[in-house]
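lol forgot to send this yesterday, sorry. struct tokens for the thing we talked abt
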């Protein structure tokens, strides 16, 4: 007759769950360990597995931001459940700010990565910010709809009955931004001098 193993590993697994505030999982983990240990000659293996699983669930209870930023679009309240695949808020990175300027395709010949730029924001146009071209766009969504190009940025043309030059997004990294002035979606003006480099 097999004797019942001690309950110490079950208590360890249950304790980890209780630290996470999941008392329902703590009770379930202890009960599962007791059932499996009664049927398996190596109950310690199941106990260790349950402990590791409890530690993993404990890590899931803490969400760490990858950068400093500002929380926006927060529409949740205490006690609300967060479902996988559904965003609960947006974190705006305030350590790096970019300005996206749409330049005509006839002007892209003079725009290169690493080129210096000057940025003005409409909320305070008397202040000038230095920037550097981070990247130049190589594709936009066509206005005529003749090509299915999902995933490309859409830059609409201002006049649709005249064939005008297409505009492509140029991403400019602001070197010393003022977090109190820069906002996502705000209007800005970018000026670049051909041949000028930040290096």
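and heres what i got for the seq, position by position
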């Amino acid at each position: 007759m097999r004797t019942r193993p001690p309950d110490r590993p079950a208590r360890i697994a249950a304790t980890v769950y209780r630290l996470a505030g999941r008392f329902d999982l703590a009770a379930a983990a202890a009960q599962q360990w007791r059932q499996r240990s009664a049927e398996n000659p190596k109950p310690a293996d199941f106990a260790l597995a349950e402990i590791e699983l409890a530690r993993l669930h404990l890590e899931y209870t803490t969400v760490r931001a990858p950068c400093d930023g500002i929380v926006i679009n927060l529409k949740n309240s205490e006690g609300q459940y967060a479902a996988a695949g559904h965003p609960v808020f947006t974190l705006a990175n305030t350590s790096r700010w970019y300005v996206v300027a749409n330049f005509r395709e006839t002007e892209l010949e003079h725009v290169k990565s690493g080129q210096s730029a000057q940025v003005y924001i409409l909320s305070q146009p008397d202040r000038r910010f230095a920037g550097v071209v981070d990247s130049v766009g190589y594709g936009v969504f066509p206005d005529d709809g003749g090509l299915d190009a999902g995933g490309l940025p859409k830059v609409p043309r201002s006049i649709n009955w005249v064939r005008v030059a297409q505009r492509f997004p140029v991403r400019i990294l602001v070197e010393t931004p003022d977090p109190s002035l820069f906002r996502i979606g705000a209007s800005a003006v970018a000026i670049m001098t051909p041949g000028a480099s930040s290096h």
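The longest strand covers residues 188-197. anyway ping me if u want another try
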